Amino acid sequence: MSERPRIIIVVSKSDIASVLQFQILRDSFGFTEINEVLFSNPVYARNNIKIVQINEPSILSTEVKSLHGDLLVFASKHVSQAGMKAVLVHTPGVWTDDVSHGGLPYKIGLAPANELKYGFDRLAFHAEDNRLNGFNVGIEVTHHGPILPEIPAIYVEQGGTREEWENQKAAETVAATIYDLAQAFSMGMIPQKKAIVGFGGNHYCARFLKLVSIDDYAFGHIIPKHALDRTKPEMIRDAWTRTLAQEKIAVVDKKGTKSAHRKMIRDQLSGIAEIVFR
User: Fold this and answer.
1) Which helix (H) or strand (E) holds 180?
2) Does domain 195-277 have CATH number 3.30.160.390?
């Protein structure tokens, strides 16, 4: 019998939403303290799923670079300057030389498309089940750190101000989503769907969200319009190759890109990807 995959849920002790999500996972989903300490903090586990507590903000973390697993899921807050209430899922990465929110210049991680889709679907389910009124359920473009070159990573977040970070129902929604995702991944029960690699549009991926929520596509890396202005051409190819899915297409938001962006995308993906303009 092959070894079951190892999942690590990462909690940041400096993030009040993450701490609340951890408390729910520990108290409601059967995680118990084991005889292991990492970063001076006790480790919790249930079967092959571990919860690791880090001391730094997760997006800036250097501690996570020492972790080894098959999937990392970050329990996190979401910061919205506009105060948008939301529960969200995305994968980390940096498209430009701006590392003010962690990561490395022009580096993206591995985007597990089907796990991202499953996380979104479970967020939607639990948000409705918990009557999380007034919160959007959505996806985000690839952004911020940390960069884990060889371990697929997902952020599941609640936000966008302190009021939402402390919202119990939002935390229950995120915690239940993380648990469902970890369990399904552990059991090899993540549905396999056709995935999109997205180019253009805004931070909250309005056009791609419709493909994910209505047309049932999975999604991997998404690079927004503003980042296309400042990225390197080879990052287009990286977005494609570092999206993990058996079947995938490149989808370009035609209204959310410039002609120069579309030329760059064609030049980089010609011959390796099916490109669809929407």
Assistant:
1) helix 168-186
2) no
The answer to whether the CB of 87 falls within 8 A of the CB of 128 is no
Q: Where are the domains of the chain?
A: 7-186, 195-277
| CA atoms within a 13 Å half-sphere pointing along the CA-CB vector of 105 | 5
Q: Which superfamily is assigned to 7-186 in CATH?
A: AF0625-like (3.40.630.50)
Q: pLDDT digits over 250-269, tens only?
A: 999 999 999 999 999 999 99
List Cβ neighbours of 121 (8 Å cut-off, separation of 6 or more).
Answer: none
Dist CA 157 CA 173 (whole Å)? 10
> Is 198:229 a contact under the CB 8 Å cutoff?
no
Closest-CA residue to 117 (of 53, 205, 16): 205
C-alpha to C-alpha distance for 1 and 48, rounded to whole angstroms: 15
Q: What is the mean pLDDT of residues 123-145?
A: 97
Residue type, 212: V
**Beta strands at 86-90 and 136-139: parallel, antiparallel or unpaired:** parallel
Q: Computed from CA positions of residues 229, 232, 238, 240, in that sequence, does the dihedral angle turn out positive or negative?
A: positive
